[in-house]
Structure prediction request, 426 residues.
Amino acid sequence: MNDNTNTQSYIDKFSLSPVSSLFFAIAFLAIGYGMILTFVGVYLKELGLNDAIIGLINASFFLGAIGSSIFSQKIISSVGHIRSFATFASLMVISFLIQALFFNEYLWAFLRFISGFAFYALLIIIESWLNEKSSQSHRGKILAIYTIIFYLATALGQLFLNIKGDTTYIIFILGSVLILFSVLFISMTKIKEPILKPFEKYSFPKLFSVVPLALMGSFIGGFLVGGFFTMIPIYLMQKYSSIETVSLFMACSILGGLISQWPIGLLSDKYGRRKMIAYNGFYIAIICMLFIFTISYENMIYVLGVLLGLSIFSIYPLALARANDVVDENKDIVEISRALLFTYGLGSFLAPIILGFGLYYYSEFIFIIFALLGVFLGFYSLSKKRIADDDMSVFVNIPVASGSVVLELDLEQNLENQKENNESKS
Prediction:
């Protein structure tokens, strides 16, 4: 009896010390990720490349992310988390340093692919560890702290773009240093390595029939966020020719995304995911129209940046919550979680390609496409069936770049909760 009491007391005790090394690691990763993801497009624009070529190079990063969501778990499970983390971090550092030394469109596209593959693999490693060290009762707190750190660190990374001097060398070297700092924390950790499940194949037609709104929301959310990070900095450089304006705008937008997570979660728990996704879509369309008509007022864009961040960073978590609401209708939980990540990556991959070609012909193309997608998502969401209040899951805040492990653990937890509720009712 005493052993059970002690065990329960240990489980109920909440402490950040066991996962502090993971939080430090993700902080350094997110600073370097946010900084370089924005900088690449701006730098290529300064070199005089047309927007279509820049879009293709930026899209390579998300193509690597798609590949990582499929293949990286096999690598991680075969050699272990610490060795995998060191391997993928080394690949990122190598790609950054080669980019600092040489420029070639094809070489950079390949290096962006490698860094995208490595970065998303690093996320999967960290998130699976968080799952290992967080009990069901404290998992929401752990993910909330993880989300806050990820957003704040990514926003901080934008401010490093204001560094003076030969920014090509400085930014890539600084990014490499930040990645290496994350390796230090992981290499010294004593956290037990979790066991990742092997990747399972899935059928999109079957999944789409079960969670169509979740998959559509995930795809459009990926498109908006991918376009935001890769092509909006280029658009702002065309308008204002100021890296300071770009960095401050991006930081404001990301902080807007952080601010929105808690109220969006509360509202979606109260009014349902379907309505919140629809309202979010219509809201995005309005904000994008304001961008087109007020873009000449430079101070106004920072306010609009916060308002845009409030919406585009909320679509993916809402799509995940929608999938959770209907997961009891389908047993293939892992299939759904990884399909959502895949469609998010696919949207992020297509965004810079489509927007790059569009910007080549019309400077306001980004906001026109964003507005059209928002309107489509709004009407599409309203056309779907409402979920009963008793069947709704609990909204969980996660970063937009989150890997499949967080999705998987959240879906599994939701299924367990639903089973317990059904047993208690019966």
Q: What stands out?
A: DSSP finds 17 helices and no strands in the chain. Residues 1-11, 403-407 have pLDDT under 50 and may be disordered. The longest helix spans residues 51-79. The CA atoms of residues 53 and 414 lie 43 Å apart.
